[in-house]
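User:
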Amino acid sequence: MSSSNNQVVEIYTDGACKGNPGVGGWGVFLKYNDHEQELFGGEAMTTNNRMELLAAIRALEALNRPCKVHLHTDSQYVQKGMCEWLPGWKARNWLTANKKPVKNDDLWKALEKLVQQHEVEWFWVRGHSGDIGNERADELANRGVDKISANN
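Assistant: Predicted structure:
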């Protein structure tokens, strides 16, 4: 999916996990003008936070040129991580304020690298509150869980 400079790609992401850790899924709903794209997948043994991060990563990977993006997530972990916590983690060489290693640093680093290719604004939305884009992403994340569950 691509956009011209003044157009915005609306992205909704969600992660799901049956058990935490357990079977997980991620879902992405992208919208650009009249174009829509749905992506989903999952992993057999993972956590909800990893699926939330992977959804954002897969969404940005789907863009085929630099875009202006509004990324909507119901994960405060992802939204605050990108908007508040990341600079401190990097300044402390990927340690938290408590001097513990940042969890999921592999995914945080991958996401940060992708974000640098785009102009991304992060929006937190309350999950399961009727936001159509978030509901679609949630359905896709659960489809990812079901796909992995069916294969195991």
